[in-house]
C-alpha cells in the first residue's frame, strides 16, 4: 500500500483531503494525517477566540472520516527526507512514500529582547486560549499593547475593543500608516474606525525591548499590563531543521511542483513555503489544488506538466469587530457592513464545504 503522509491539519492539507477523499482515492493509496490536535483549527479566527467574542467550538472543524485515512496525534520533532521518515516526540516513527508538510508557522520575535518571554500569541489554538485567559482576566483600565498592525493585529485590536470597551488598547505599527501596501482609502477607513473607537495606533514604531510591564518603543517606555505579539512569522522548528535551501525569512525554496528540489517525494504547503505571496490560508489552498494534481500524475505514472499555472489570489477580507470590515478584491476597495458580511459568508462556506 502506498503511503501519503500529511503533516498538519491546516488549510492546505484540509484542501488536499477534501479533494482526495471526495473523489476516487486510488485503491493502493492510504493517507496518514499527523497533528497535535484531533481537529482542524480556523487560524484566521483565532483573534476572536483570544478576544472572547467566540467560543472555542466556533474555531474548530472536525477532521474527515474515511476507511483509508488514519489520524495520528502527536508533536513532530524531526523530518528526515533522506530516510523517508517522520519522528514524533513519543518515539513513534512514520514512514512515507509521499509527504506533504503543512505545519504552519510560529511567531518571529526578530531577536527583540524579552519578546518571546513576555508576550502572548494567537498563532495556535492553545496559545490563543492562554491569551484569552490573560486578556479577559485584566481589570478595568488595564493597557494592552498589540505589536504588529497587519491583518491579525488589526482584527485582534478591533475585536478586543468590542469585547472589552473598558481597556486601553495600543496598536503598534512599523509603517507610517495602517496597511501601507494597499490603497490609502483602505488605510484611512481602518484608521478612522480605530480613532472612533479609541484604539491608539502608534505609527512608525520600533519595539526594541519587552519587559513584563513595559514596552520600549524607540527611546520611549510605555507601561502595559499585557502584550500580544503579531509582528511576523517564521517556519516551525522541524521545518527549520531540514537541510535544504531557505529564503531570507527561513521559508523553504521549492521547485515548480511545490517539492523539495533534492527530494521530489516531499511537498511543502502553506506558511513554510517560499512563494512570492504573503502567507495566507488562500495561498495554502491554491497550492494544495496543484499538489493534488501532481500527486495524481505521480500515482498514475504520468509525466508532470512542463509548466504550472500561476497562483491567482482573489484578494483579502478583514473584520473590524462584528459589524464593520474591509476588503481588497480585484484591485477594488470595499469597506463597511458589506465587507463584514462577505467575510462571514466566506467563513460559513468554508465550514460547509469541510463538513
TrEMBL record:
InterPro entries: FAD/NAD-bd_sf, FAD/NAD-binding_dom, NADH-Q_oxidoreductase. Belongs to the NADH dehydrogenase family. Its cofactor is FAD. SUPFAM superfamilies: FAD/NAD(P)-binding domain (SSF51905). Residues 3-288 form the FAD/NAD(P)-binding domain. This is NADH dehydrogenase. The keyword Transcription regulation does not apply. It comes from the Bacteria. The keyword Oxidoreductase applies. Keywords: FAD, Flavoprotein, Oxidoreductase. It holds the Pfam family Pyr_redox_2. Coiled coil: none annotated.
